[in-house]
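COMPLEX REQUEST
Ligand: Phenylacetyl coenzyme A
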Amino acid sequence: MKRSSMSGLEQMSLLAAGKVPPPSIALMPGESYGTVDLSVKLVRPIPTGVRLRGEGKLMNLSRSVAISQGRIVDDSGKLYAHATCTCMILRPS
Ligand SMILES: CC(C)(COP(=O)(O)OP(=O)(O)OC[C@H]1O[C@@H](n2cnc3c(N)ncnc32)[C@H](O)[C@@H]1OP(=O)(O)O)[C@@H](O)C(=O)NCCC(=O)NCCSC(=O)Cc1ccccc1
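STATUS: Structure written out below.
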């Protein structure tokens, strides 16, 4: 069956992958992060065959928590989905 749009899970995966810049760019050697929360809003179906762009921004970085936002847009800037992600910074003890 030929599909005309992406599933919610596919869109979420795209957003999760696109939660760029990941907190890792702000991490020191030896540090890592774990995703605590990922909130996704799918505002219109994504048709197949459309070129999309994933955009991400690190909104805030505290000692223990990184908050980033991501969005999926097409070439004209039309918004398809956006997400907010909260990650815990994990430091070696
Ligand atoms: C339907 C709603 C949740 C709410 O919209 P509303 O508050 O009623 O606002 P409004 O009417 O202003 O429309 C806003 C934009 O949405 C578009 N559109 C609206 N209805 C339909 C439709 N029946 N079919 C296609 N497109 C529709 C509409 O053209 C407009 O886009 P445009 O400005 O012309 O480019 C919308 O945000 C949406 O489809 N999100 C993505 C959901 C998704 O992909 N989930 C992934 C899992 S798949 C799933 O869940 C199954 C499912 C898929 C689609 C629908 C139902 C079930």
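REMARKS: The chain has a mean pLDDT of 80. The longest helix spans residues 8-17.
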